[in-house]
Structure formats: structure tokens, C-alpha cells
Amino acid sequence: MRRLRTLGATVSSVPITLFGLVLVTFLIGRVMPIDPVIAIVGDHAQNDVVQAVRDQLGLDRPLVVQFWIYLKLLAHGDLGRSVMTSNPVTHDIVQYFPAPIELATVAILLAVLVGIPLGVLAAVRRGTWIDHCVRVFCLAGHSIPIFLLALIALLVFYATLGWAPGTGRSDIGLEGMVPEITGFLTVDALIAGDWTSFRDAVAHLMLPAGVLAYFSMAYIARMTRAFMLDALQGEFVITARAKGLSAARVIWRHAFGNIAVRLVTVLALTYAGLLEGAVVTETVFGWPGLGQYLTISLLNADMNAVLGATLVIGLSYLLLNLLADAAYGLLDPRVR
Amino acid sequence: MLTRRAMLAASAAVITAPAAPLARAATPAGVAVMAKHIDDVISFDPAESYEFTNNEVDGNIYRRLVGPDQSDNTKVAGDLAEKWDISADGKEFTFHLVKSAFFPSGKALTAHDVAFSFQRVVALNKTPGFILTQFGFTKDNVEKLVRAIDDHTLQMSLPVAQAPTFVLFCLSANVGSVVEKAVVLEHQTGNDLGNAWMKGHSAGAGAYQLTQWVASDHITIDANPHSGLPVSSKRVTLRHIVDPSAQFLMLQKGDADIVRDLTPDQLKSITTGDGTTIISAGQGSSIYIAMNMARPEFQKPQVLQAMKWAIDYDAIANNITPNTYVVSQSILPKGLPGALTDMPFKKDVAKARALLAEAGYPDGFSVKMDSAAISPYVDIAQAVQADLAAIGIKVELISGEQKQVITKMRARTHEMALLYWGTDYFDPNSNAQAFCANPDDSDASKLRILAWRNHFKDPQLTQMVEDAAKELDGEKRIGMYQEIQRIARDRAPFIILLQQISTAVLAKGVSGFVLGPLPDYTKYAGIKKA
């Protein structure tokens, strides 16, 4: 019951958080020293054209009125129209969001599969050469700029070894071959039963996902190691060992089980960060993601697009936090 | 049950999955793949399109009455118009159309489509609309002034006589593209004359038609089966690849046939001996420094001259922008009709210092300069800062997003700005008007281009620009523009630094790609792969 109340309080805070997010983003957009009309009509436009667009966008009205109009439209699910793509922002989000979800999901899975065992291993073998190797490996992943990592990956695996395809989500010859249902190219290819497109989509996914995974894995492994070191010194671990339990059981059941809640928080935030923070990777790999959409929109003062994308990213963070909250109850009996 | 062994096997399979099927092949037959920045596209509607990539693609989708002469692009040649007559007073243009132009729908292009296209541009009055409305066309008179006499004859009457070459070059711009009236009206929403639909679709009689546009991802165009024009590649795909290194790798691996945005260093490293071809074309675009004459220092002609004599133009071009920009010192870039190609200014510190002293600033002064925080502007700004420091002018650099710099300059709140200017159409009037004409310096002025934005009030130059636009004698007109350029070098508060060179690298066996001096003159139809 207490858990339900906590979850209810968290859910009820969502609208307030979103309102704050929209308000701050809206105000930042309006005080930016870029005239949004320039983004639409260009530098050469005549005055009458500039004024007509300014009127059309309502930019001469007071800020409060502009914000109220935006909120009213938002309440009807209308995020406005993007200047850069000429599409409704909702359409753009539907188009650009599946790609980063696909990328981030594969990246986080790879990062978890490698990062957690590495972190646990380093903690268990603390101070040995294994620990040192893991720490150096993770330090490199976290220190090398991601654009450099991405370019090295392209150079090695695409240009030199030829193991991976180049940029984009699919080969030119296969572009548009799979009917778009979910927007996730791998899933759509599976639904269509098109194995060639599926293999191509997976292949195009692996290199950018691998780069992102290495970056995230480094963080996850370091956090896992730190949490595990803490847990392994706990009295419950000494007790478990004294009871004669096997080393694997002590490590995975008792120590790891104890850090799972904290690790879930790390994973949720890492995953959310990947959804919107993969701009550099998207740029190098020509991957049409929401991060790139948001960046281009911001540079062009395309405020409807910026607000829409920010809202979606904010919602993702909130949703992942809610899921993490819900997961605490499953992982930690004290929270139930 | 998920065992540890099964989990490890699954992980290994996922990690190694891409390794198996990926022996890279060349791009598919009949498809030309181009890697390029395409995030500037806003709309493909020729009544609205005004950016580089959309204008370039439109140039392959739509046809116009006239276009640049392939052998001498300072002259116009017929495209849809096989011939035309101009009345002695320069006010009546009669175009006789070819009968061989067809839209993708299979229908023949007629003079009614042409008249509708021009009327539509004027009625919508989007950004490029002024290229036609500057001749006096309005929503109210355009239907009377631009009309189809029959299916193959179009008559255009100008309210005021204009230089014929001026009119014809404006009609060769993207805004002069002819759309299929029936298709556009079929997709009309409200009174938008099909504008919303035309942003992402096409209705032209050119060699290609727009198949798909995903913003900041790719553009695909397919051959127009009825155009009757020779097309070597049935499909052309432009992929948005931001990173030049990634473009370079795609070229090396055969995943792109043509790449467009390599850096000067990458261009230097390309060896053409293996069949790779580098092509380039001077563009109608310049990088310049504007000096706002609201600053009292810039009201002194000697200061403007001192600034122009202080810059090391060759060092900037050779060290910062090799292969991508060349020195240019005229308001008309080389290639435009009447452009002066001599370079009167070179770095002369003693002369520049003497001019400053003559103006009453022997110790120089301090000034702020806005510039875009992107390559090559950052490096150019620093080079200019160093050159001006040598004559005692302390420049404080203010870096920002390019649109931020433009916003500031349009509001006339800058002191100096390093910016980029591209000609609107291939006639000298475009740049001459932008840099020299300022009939009204007040905030209520209707003409607020570069001269106005920098408080450059020169009644003589303003009048000369107006007269040249109406001069019926072609040769005399060219002479007038040359004189305008000379005076502008002396008096205008603009340091013209560089002219852009557009460069494309074609993979081994690829040929037939034509780079034009303006984006809409770049042609894809001849792209062939061996």
C-alpha cells in the first residue's frame, strides 16, 4: 500500500514536471538571439515576407499570449509544425524517435551484458591484474571522445576490415523495401519476413550501437565495481561465506542482489541519456535520430520542433524513472 | 530455462552477427549515390525553395523558359522557350514554347502551366517571390500581365521597361520553374495553391521527379519517364552525411559515387591517378566583412580603404581555404556577367597605417566583429584579427551561430561582421543592389539588404544600380556594372575576401556530373557509372 502511494505521488508529479519543462524550454527559445523568422525565410527575404511570417507565427504578440496559445494546442496533441521539415512535429517525432530507441536499446543491452560481469569480476578480484585491466579498459571507454571512438570504429571495422557496413540505417539498395509499421527497422523487417533487410538492418545497427555500448559499458562497469566493493564488505556477505555457501552464490545472490536497486537507477539514467544524447554518434554514422533532429532544430531556432523533442525526451526520462521505481519493489523486499 | 551457457552463446551471436554477410559492393546499378549535407532543405516548392540543396534538386526536377548557355553561362539559352521576341521598348516579352516537354503524368507542358506558375509565385509571395515581383507584378495585375496566348505562346508584359538580360536571368532562376497546373491545384488546401503539398512533392517536367524526402536523412529522385530528356542514372539518392571523414570513407568503400563536402585537407590527400575525379566550379557566393557605418570610424573613406589594404588575402585563401575558396575582391563573383576579376588590394601595412593616420586614427581603434563559430569562419576571423592588429585596429571577436550573426546584422546592431552572401539570380543586378543600393536608410525602408544593414548611403551608386537594371543595351549595361564595382571598391563598407569554389569528388568510373555556378544549374542527368 505504501508502495502504491509512493508510485501515485510520482505519477501525479508528471504533469507539473512537464509543465515546468515546457515553460523553461519555451522561454529559452524566445530569448535566444536568433530570429526564428530568419530560419524560415532566409537572409535574403524582403520585409513584407518577413513580416507576413512573423504575423503567421504570432511572434509580435506578448510572450504570455504566445505561451497560452502553445499550451492550448498542446492540450489537443498539436505540437505545431516544424520549420525545417515542414511537417507536423508529431509526425517528425514518430519518424525520428524509433531509430534512437532501437540504437539505445541494443547499446544498453550490449553494455549490460559486458559491463555488469566486468564490474563484478573487477570487484571480486580487487587489486589483481584483472581489476587493473578492467579499470584501464573502462577508463578508455569513458575518456576517449565519442566522435573519435566512432570515427576509429568506422575506419577499422568499415574501411579497413570490411566487417561492418558504413553509415545510415540500411543499404541504398534496400532503402524503402520494408513497409514501415513500427518504425523499428529490425522489427519491421521481421514482420515483413524480409531476412535480407533484417540482416542489413542489424549490421547497420551494430557499429553505432557498439560505440555507444562501449561508452555506456565503461560507466556501468565502474559503478558496478564500486557498488560491489561496498557490498562485498557487508556483514551479510561474511555471514553467507561463514555458512559455507559457494562463492558464486555469495557474489551473485547475496552481494549482487543487494546492489541491484542502485544499479537499476544507473541503467535507467544511462538508457535515457542514450536516447537523446547520442547526437555525435548519430552525426558520424548518418543515423537519423531525435538527438540530431533536436540539435538541428535548435541551431535553426525551430522552436516548435525543439519544444516537441524536449517534451518527448522529458517524458522518456519520467517514464524510465517510473519504471525504475516500479522495479525497486520487485528487487528489494524492503520497498514492497 | 535460460542457462548461463545459453546466455553467453546468445551474446556472442549478437556481437558477431554483422561480420558474416558484409562484403561491400558498389552502389546499385542505375542508382547514383551522393553524400552531402542536406539539412538545409525546407521546401521543394519552387515558389518557396531558396536554400542550396532544394534549389539544386529543383534544378533537376523542373524546367524553366530559359537557362544559362552551357558554352558561355554569362548568356541565356532557351530551355522551354525555343525562341522569344522582345518589343523595342523592352516591356513586352513573347515566348514560343517547345512542344516536347512532358510532365511525369504524361501530359504536355503548355503556356497555361507557365502562366500559372508565375502567377502562383507572385500570389504566394514567399522568400524568392521578389525575383518576379521586382518587375512590378502584384497579386492584382499578374494574371493580366502574364498570360497564355495559346498552348505554346506566353506573353509577359512589364509595367516598367527593364533590361532584357535582367528579366531573362531572373526567369532562369529556380523561382521561374514551371509546375503542372492541374496536379498542383488537385493538391490545393484552402488558398495555399498547393504549397503544403509541393513542399515535399514535385510536379515538374524536368529529367527527374521527387520520390522521397526524409529531412536530414535522404532525398531520392527518380527519372521522369515522359521528360524526353536523356538520363543516365534512373535514380539519384542524396544521403545526409554530416561528417566529412565519413563521406571520405564512403567514397573509398564504394558506398557513395559522389561526395560533396570534403575538407581542404581531404581534397589534398586524394590521388586522382586511380580514376577518382575532382571537379570544381566557382560559385556565385562570397565571404565578406561588413563594416557598419553607424560607427563614426567607418564613415571615413580612408578607414575603409585602410581595412582593405591591411588584409592578407592570399594567405587566407592558401592556408585556410585551399580548394574551397579563392581570393575575390569584387561584389560580383567571377563568372557573373560583368564581374571584375582583377585584385587591386594586397597586404600593405605601411599604406594601411598611413590611411588610418590620414583619417585621424594614427593609433587605430577597437571594434567588435561577429562571425559564425564554424569552419572556415573561425580561422578567417582570427586571420583578419591578426592582420588588423598589425595596423593598430584591435578586433574583439564575437563567435555565434550563423543565424545569430545574421539576426544581429539585420537589426543593424553589429559593428563588423564576417558573413557569406550568395547571389539570388545570375544577373549582376542581384549583388549590385544588395551591396550598393540604399534609397532610404530609415527603419521604414522597403529595401533592407546589405547596404541598408550597414548604413551605407551612396545616392550616386543607388542611382547607378537603378539605371543599370533598366538599360536596354546589353554591352553598355555590362560597362555600367563594372563601374559600379570600381566605385564600390573605393567607397563601400565591405571587404570582399573570397569566392566559394564548389568541389565534388567522383568515384572511379563515375562521370557526367555537372556542377553549376548556382545550385540550380547543377545537373545530375548525365551521371554515369562505368
Termini separation of chain A comes to 8 Å
Rg over C-alpha atoms of chain A, rounded to the nearest angstrom: 24 Å
The geometry of chain B reads as globular
Instruction: Report the mean per-residue pLDDT of chain A as an integer.
Output: 85
Shape of chain A: globular
**Number of separate helices of chain B:** 19
Helix/sheet category of chain A: mainly alpha
Which structural category fits the helices and strands of chain B? alpha+beta
Task: Look at the structure and give the mean pLDDT of chain B.
Answer: 91
Report what the structure shows:
The mean pLDDT of chain A is 85. In chain A, helix 1 runs antiparallel to helix 15. Helices cover 76% and strands 0% of the residues of chain A. Chain A is mainly alpha-helical and 336 residues long. Chain B has 530 residues and is α+β, with helices and mostly antiparallel strands. In chain B, 32% of the residues lie in helices and 21% in strands. Chain B has helices at residues 4-16, 52-61, 111-124, 130-133, 142-145, 164-171, 181-186, 195-198, 244-253, 264-269, 301-310, 313-319, 349-358, 377-389, 402-410, 429-436, 450-453, 459-470, 474-491; strands spanning 31-36, 66-68, 76-78, 81-86, 92-97, 146-150, 153-157, 208-214, 218-223, 235-240, 258-259, 277-291, 325-327, 366-372, 394-400, 416-422, 494-506, 510-511, 528-529. In chain B, strands 1, 8, 9, 10, 11, 12, 13, 14, 15, 16 and 17 form an eleven-stranded mixed sheet that branches. The radius of gyration of chain B is 25 Å and the shape is globular. Residues 1-25 of chain B have low confidence and may be disordered.
